[in-house]
Amino acid sequence: MKVREMSIQDIRRVYEINLTCFKEDAWDIRAFEREFKVPNSKRWVLELKDNILGYCIVWVVSDEAQIMSIAIDKDHQGKGLGKFLLSYVLEKLIDKVKIVTLDVKSSNFKAIRLYQSLGFEIISYRSRYYQSGKDAIQMELKLDEAIRKTLERIIFTTAYSESS
After folding, report:
1. Please, which residues have CB within 8 angstroms of residue 140's CB and are 6 or more apart in sequence?
2. Which of 27, 43, 140, 146 has the most crowded CB, counting CB atoms within 10 A?
């Protein structure tokens, strides 16, 4: 299992994952194409044996990052891959930004628990934020040395368990 930078050739598979995970709030394929033209966009995919299982797109502006979209293929959810991918991304950002924010559908309890397990805290609610009219919870993580150690442990433990 590895995380690498997303390439333009990955868009079709990333779009498929997004569509199955977010249904009515999924991004249009052109939105993924536009991400490659946004200078502050950082993009990663999670692969296992050349099969893309997930992705993460982040915008970095000054000393803050906003997670724009993150998803794991439905068939591979519940196996710790989302935590591994997000830990990897946060570890890559830790020397570049001080704060990471994200919006999550208020009914997505699995994702909220995942984010909280990594130290994200709820900072506000956004009424009717999504195209579907659903509410969002805005969450924030302050990156520091304690978080770095947690992320390194998660990455090492997940990578080690995959190799054994």
Report:
1. 99, 100, 101, 120, 121, 123
2. 43
